[in-house]
Amino acid sequence: MKKEILQTLFQTLDTISFFESFNTEEADINIDATLCKGVAIFEKSIHSEEWEDIRAEAAAQLSTMLNKKFQNQYQEWNTVAKEARQYFNEKIEPKLKPFEDTHGLKNLNDDIGYDIVHIIIEGYFTKRVGIKKMLFSRLFDIYKSGKIPCGYSKSREDDFIRPTGKIIYL
């Protein structure tokens, strides 16, 4: 495993002000995305089975593609995922409880943790083997803007490898 790739990703993540622009009009999102209509809808959407399925399918397609095309490097997946989860637990999770309390939200740990872990995994393999950016890179753009992604409007059924739909965020 290339430790320097992970360290670079962690350094980039360290510069992000997570959740800073949540539920505000200001945003610097450089992708095609749609603003969610309020905190109540956001909370329902982020915990929805549909949003979970979309992210799980994107993760599965990333895993499958890496396994088929880059079997040797794919063996690093579990180690990268473990380091990514540790990073989330130490650096981002402590910010969640105060954020949830401020906005009257609950149980965002699993959803945001899943995103961050897969953002790191996709970022790692993008640098490691040169894959093109997929869904989690787009989610990363949302997080970098201080927002949180909570849904996805698909324009067609098979668009997770090169997604063309709109991410919903608040």
Describe this structure in words.
The protein has 170 residues and is mainly alpha-helical. It is 61% helix and 7% strand. It is globular, with a radius of gyration of 15 Å. The N and C termini lie far apart (35 Å).
Task: Please give a handful of descriptors for the protein shown.
61% helix; globular; 170 residues; 3 strands; mainly alpha
Work out the helicity level: 55-70%
Radius of gyration: 15 Å
Biggest sheet features: 3 strands, mixed
- The number of distinct β-strands equals 3
Mean pLDDT: 90
Q: Roughly what fraction of the amino acids lie in strands?
A: 5-15%
Lateral strand order in the biggest sheet: 1-3-2
List the total number of helices: 7
Mass-distribution shape: globular
**N-end to C-end Cα span:** 35 Å
What letter string, H or E per element, gives the SSE order?
Answer: HEHHHHHHEE
Contiguous uncertain segments of 5+ residues:
none
Q: Structural class given helices, strands, pairing?
A: mainly alpha
Topology readout:
Layout: H1 3-14, E1 33-35, H2 39-46, H3 49-69, H4 71-74, H5 77-103, H6 109-129, H7 135-144, E2 149-153, E3 166-169
Parallel strand pairs: 1-3
Antiparallel strand pairs: 2-3
Helix pairs in contact: 1-6, 3-6, 5-6, 6-7
Quick rundown:
The chain has 170 residues and is mainly alpha-helical. It has helices spanning 3-14, 39-46, 49-69, 71-74, 77-103, 109-129, 135-144; strands spanning 33-35, 149-153, 166-169.
